[in-house]
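User: Can you help me understand a structure? I only have the sequence.
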Amino acid sequence: MGTLSDLLTLARQRASRLDLPYQGALTPAEAWQVLQLAPGARLVDVRTRAEWDWVGRVPGSVEIEWVSYPGSQPNPNFVAQLRHQVDPEALVLFLCRSGARSDSAARAACAAGYNNCYNVLEGFEGDKDANGQRNRVGGWRHAGLPWQQG
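Assistant: Let's start by predicting it. Here is the structure, written out as tokens:
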């Protein structure tokens, strides 16, 4: 386990290499370490209610849909809901299924004045494997991190 400073430095280096507008990008294992080392940090799961219910949840996470299900309509209240549930001064980690929606959410939060935003790369389920299935290549669940059935 690295120090919080080491983990955030690594995440910031990734953000710089990837030209991200927010502070950093963490692997699921690194994100879990950050959550253990920074008690005020918040994990914001931006998947849909259907994903939380059918695929699983991360205990203690803040759940705010980035898009709705069904229909995949953008959540027009995302930033307002984030402000209601997460202090803008907090270290905030965003998680989705594979890392794409959480990237968008981190960008939106950063634009809304959150200055300590990180994306969790690989997401909850990771990328698809050669057979088109998730949870076998990367991701929060594959890394054996805490989660519970919806």
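Now, to help you interpret it: The chain has five helices and five strands. The first helix runs from residue 4 to 18. Let me know which part you'd like to focus on.
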